[in-house]
Amino acid sequence: MSWFQGKTRQQTVPMQLQIKALDSVDMYLWGMTYGSDKKDNRAYTLKPFDKSRGHWLIDEHNSIVLDLFQIGPKVTGSFTVDGNTIVNSYTLQGDSLVIEFYNIQERPIAITGGKDSTIPKIKSYGMRSYQVAVLRR
Asked: How far apart are CA 134 and CA 54, in angstroms?
């Protein structure tokens, strides 16, 4: 996984994602491992919320539950923590899984437009960082 701030790559870290069916119906281990020493292991559970609408949940087992949605060829979600909105996506491309995380400033850096009722008010947000990983089987 590569992590960028601005134009600069800040860090590259080995990453693995393990998805494995659990005993329960439609429940999966969603295990993320970071680092070459594999000490940073995150064993989450992926479970359906509304499969007919492509709505899934990642349960972190610490009172945090994140929503994911099947949108076209992606599974994507967003959440806000400590002034940062994170938008994540998972896309299958052949035998690879492309994982992307965008870190967006929660407060707008500019508000423009809105001069009259025909022009909407537009809020722009700062992009803080980007993470990308291409995982292969």
From this structure: 23
pLDDT digit string, tens, across residues 53-90: 999 999 999 999 999 999 999 999 999 999 999 999 99
Task: Say whether 51 sits in a helix, a strand or coil.
Answer: helix
Could you give the CA distance from residue 134 to residue 125 in angstroms, rounded to a whole number? 27
Using DSSP bridges, classify how beta strands 84-93 and 74-81 pair: parallel, antiparallel or unpaired: antiparallel
* Helix, coil or strand: residue 53: helix
Residues 6+ apart with CB under 8 A from 31: 16, 17, 18, 19, 20, 41, 42, 43, 44
Q: What is the pLDDT of residues 87-115, one digit of tens each?
A: 999 999 999 999 999 999 999 999 999 99
How many whole angstroms separate alpha carbon 26 and alpha carbon 101?
A: 25
- The answer to whether the CB of 51 falls within 8 A of the CB of 95 is no
